[in-house]
Amino acid sequence: MRKYLVAGNWKMNGSRDSAARLINDIIQGLEPRPEAEVLVCPPFVHLAEVNRLLKGSSVALGAQDVCAENNGAYTGEVSGAMLLDCECRYVIVGHSERRALYGETDPMVARKFMTAQKAGLIPILCVGETLADRERGETHVVVTRQLKAVLDAAGAGAFAQAVVAYEPVWAIGTGHTATPEQAQEVHAFIRSLIRTADVKIGDATRLLYGGSVKAANAAELFRMPDVDGGLVGGASLEAREFLAICAAAG
Ligand code: 13P
After folding, report:
1. Is the CB of residue 125 below 6 angstroms from any atom belonging to ligand 1?
2. Which of 1, 8, 91, 173 has the most Cβ atoms closer than 10 angstroms to its Cβ?
3. CB distance 109 to ligand 1 below 6 Å
4. Domain 5-249 has CATH 3.20.20.70
């Protein structure tokens, strides 16, 4: 049985005050359930304080990115070891905003994935097509390229300790959520790619959907057989909305 995972990607939002308020409201309102894991991914500068505040709760901590190198002269970068030291358990790699705005390539994302794992973190690998890709009928081609870059470099075994998030670029921050059927179709395809490499691991890998997930659509998405939770952007900044999404898992 795969355990649901509901992850909040706070992106570049908030202040020390608002981050503290948000995590306190989430902790107070959360009803821990064994079938669903809850994760928050604040900006780097808020990780230590959010970690302090969520101590003793069931909420896990993650980061939004990681450097592909281990340590040294990489000004502005943050290593996997530093994230582990802040007690992060997860890290997002290859988010479409990083691919599109900061030039992250498939090989770079694969290196981040492997460096994060070596440091002891669970990578959440983001894949997803643009609207133009979808309209050209190339959703599977793009997702295959993004996933295979990591599968080939890290091996299928690495996915025993990893999560994949399908985030169609056209659904991110647009309010245009993929329909449950659209999400399920791509999730089943992603699972089949991992299963081709290793059946057991493919069956066990958690696949999250991301892109305009909100309280109003979470339950129907999470009901799909290959949707194991969500990677939530905007709606994760509102405690009530995020808690309602968490409650829809399982
Ligand atoms: P939104 O939920 O704001 O569409 O963002 C999704 C996302 O990019 C999560 O990583």
Report:
1. no
2. 8
3. no
4. yes
